[in-house]
């Protein structure tokens, strides 16, 4: 009965939410709010991609910016060098990131908690240092610490460049829907069950003959593929990136924090985390950044601590409860 | 099907956001200037100096009656913290142009931030004044709305080598070998590329070409390599922390060279001299400006700044200070905040005299790329003057500090 | 040849000081089983406390140790009690409470930016009686006195902690908790008190490192970033929770940095360190001195 109520209401809510998400750019015309919304979706997308391995495989990757970087650099280099449209370069970057993810995943995913986190930090930082110290990789110019600039091409679908914010908004929304659908499918598949079993109790899962590491590596590959697509999106959105901005620890940490604050291992967690943290980040920076240097980051830190003390499972938990309660109240009346 | 619950939030969030921005701006007679500078993070120190200089200039302009051609309109300053992060800079630029409706933008000190933010301004057609950001390409992209007051990095390296040549000639010193030591960032690698070309042209032998990570915790290995290479002249491009470490380690390890030539940045940071004290004796540094500059208004401005904030003006601060006066002059000419008129006014303005013209060169005067073509540099030597370390201008020779004889080669 | 000896000696000295900056992290991890992301910030606080102590009174930086270390101990003790403990209690049944990582990150943001608000962004250098003083060895080799003292203090600190953990009741309780917190609880050890004490010892070690660094280093609000990732690598290299491991790990890193830089650009030594670290994780995740059960 409960499940029935849930699924009905969920359908309506899902439809309403989609409609709002689709119509939002038509209502909101301010480009700067659009920018904040795009960045929010961007991080929701990134964190959902991270969640495929960070949420369901019971490990904490803290170096995911390496894959964002692989995506951005691959598509941009192919575009600058061969004039290949970033739409194809994006897929190339995704495949490359997945391969790297597998190579790094096979040995590291055996490690537990803190060790895995530190290994990924070292990997992410290693990639950053590598790119910063190379002017060329083979025949391709990566430009070391100076980064790559994509010249303005006006409004051109082929070049993955648009003058309106709307187009970027819809692209990232579509990407987000794809990764959410992927998550939903994965959660309900054999892989998903094995992963959650392995995440909760690796010994027991192994005793049942489930090859947990193999499924973890699979999840890692899928996660890295999607993460790299975000790198291309970032590159085309800002038309400029450099190692510290896209390969630094800042982005890796931010992705992981959004997941943890929202609630990792749930579909809605990354979305809620991004919806809370990104606008908060932007608004505290805009309204407090100029008044007292550092003030906005103090507030940000306080919020992190408070959420963790009162909601260690992330903010999805109380919100889900609240939603259920409202639902039964309506239904019961 | 948890996916659905999420969607409640954006609805609420969006209505809240939309509501908060829907408030109509009351029309007062102010001109809004958006400033995107690093106020936290690694470059916060220099960002805050720039903010102080801007504040002082705007206070003076407003006290003197604001923009007269616009009925005494006052300048209103808005600041955004870039955190030295291009993404934050771009978001701030979008926000300031679209929501705050600023008449123009200034910033961003970090070339990596200035680079994409000027592109945003160009896209929207909003004038962008860059007081300091040295990367060459900022004014080499054919942009109409970007104006840079400071020199670009190829001019800095050019003048460092010109200074070396002149100094060697003046003192009859033979220079054969040079060493390049620079921070491994955008700025340092840009300088190093210029140095390599210039060294080749001048016939110097490069005995060490050493980038180091700007977050290095210890620079002893770099100093030992300098010791091993035994160069005649050492060129440095360092931020504040590494300039402090390098200078102290070079002095401690008793490394002797004929000249050390810094590239501003960390060597020009007010904290540098207090931090290293006597270890900085004899170091040359290139910059845009110096406190001993012989020009009307310089001493007064510096004394006022020092009284307000507790340290002297730096080249970066002066650029920021003068940029405000440049903006004032352009607004006076344009008589409105219409971006096209204001852009034209900026392109036509020549600021050569009067308050705000405390820079070391003759005028602020833009070429067709928006680069201040008069921007020139001075070289100073750090010298112990009765117990306090001071910077004395030594080059170009006509600007040399009266009565000061540079020590070249450096005292052993 | 002298230049290589000089770089090796410098690597030893600097490496041992790196080890000292990582001791706090390893103690905290050994007991609480969490990565303390605020470690760099706590080190920054330790450096600032030492800096003000030395600058305001003009005392010898090493005489400031008895003031700075207890101050930092209580700072850590209460921080654990007020900020981190609630999360631990909420996550009772989780072996490695991930949420604690976020809390420590929040602490990192808060501490760094409070320092920025109060002290400003400028770099400060303390001019102490030992600053810039040298020991001269034959062959034109110079060693910085503060680094040599730092080397000595690091080993004294390690020996003291070793003795403390082996021979005192509190030390034994800490060891028991780090081996098996549930068993220790059953034996009547109050685990939350142990956590507070361990966190206090960790921050006190940062205070000690602050006193050692101040005579030859600069301090500013983000100075922690210079040391923290390196400290993470050091503690894993030496084996999480192992004090001698932290010192040896620090020395390995220091020697690679200093000697390696003689044969390649110094930017590449970082890469060598990351590569070595990853390799070690694949081959021997327990590190050089770690216990087998943690990874």
Rough outline of chain A:
globular
Taking the alpha carbons of the first and last residues of chain A, their distance comes to: 16 Å
User: Any idea what the radius of gyration of chain B is?
Assistant: 23 Å
Element order of chain A: H for helix, E for strand: HHHHHEEEHHHHEHHHHH
Write down how many β-strands of chain A occur, each being a DSSP E stretch of 2 or more residues: 4
Shape of chain B: globular
Beta-strand proportion of chain B = 15-25%
In the sheet with the most strands of chain A, the strands line up as: 1-2
Low-confidence stretches of chain B: 1-27
Give the strand order of the largest sheet of chain B, numbering strands 1, 2, ... along the chain. 7-6-8-9-10-13-14
The structure class of chain A reads mainly alpha
Tally of DSSP β-strands of chain B: 14
Question: Low-confidence runs of chain A (pLDDT<50, min 5 residues)?
Answer: none
Query: How is the biggest beta sheet of chain B arranged?
Result: 7 strands, mixed
Q: Largest interface, and how many residues on either side?
A: A-B, 64 and 52 residues
Please outline the major beta sheet of chain A: 2 strands, antiparallel
Radius of gyration of chain A: 20 Å
Structural commentary:
The complex is a heterotrimer of chains A (333), B (412) and C (295). Chain A has 333 residues and is mostly helical. Chain A is 75% helix and 2% strand. In chain A, 58% of the residues are buried. Chain B is built from 13 helices and 14 strands. Chain B is globular. The model of chain B is unreliable at 1-27 (pLDDT under 50). At the A-B interface, helix 1, helix 2, strand 4, helix 12 and helix 14 of A face helix 1, helix 2, strand 2, helix 4 and helix 5 of B.
Short description:
With about 325 residues, chain A is mostly helical. Chain A has 14 helices and 4 strands. The radius of gyration of chain A is 20 Å and the shape is globular.
Helices, strands, pairings?
The complex is a heterotrimer of chains A (333), B (412) and C (295).
Chain A: H1 2-27, H2 31-54, H3 65-82, H4 86-108, H5 113-132, E1 136-137, E2 140-141, E3 148-149, H6 165-187, H7 190-200, H8 202-207, H9 212-238, E4 240-241, H10 243-246, H11 249-262, H12 268-288, H13 295-310, H14 316-332
Antiparallel strand pairs in A: 1-2, 3-4
Chain B: H1 3-6, H2 8-21, E1 30-37, H3 44-63, E2 74-81, H4 86-98, E3 104-107, H5 111-124, E4 128-130, E5 146-148, H6 153-171, E6 177-183, H7 186-202, E7 205-212, H8 220-229, E8 233-237, H9 240-252, E9 259-262, H10 270-276, E10 284-287, H11 298-309, H12 315-334, H13 339-348, E11 350-351, E12 364-365, E13 378-385, E14 388-395
Parallel strand pairs in B: 1-2, 1-3, 3-4, 4-5, 6-7, 6-8, 8-9, 9-10
Antiparallel strand pairs in B: 10-13, 11-12, 13-14
Chain C: H1 2-32, H2 39-57, H3 65-90, H4 98-119, E1 124-125, E2 134-137, E3 141-144, H5 145-167, H6 169-179, H7 181-186, H8 191-213, E4 218-219, H9 224-238, H10 243-260, H11 266-283
Helix pairs in contact in C: 1-5, 1-8, 1-9, 1-10, 2-3, 2-4, 2-8, 2-9, 3-4, 3-8, 5-6, 5-8, 6-8, 9-10, 10-11
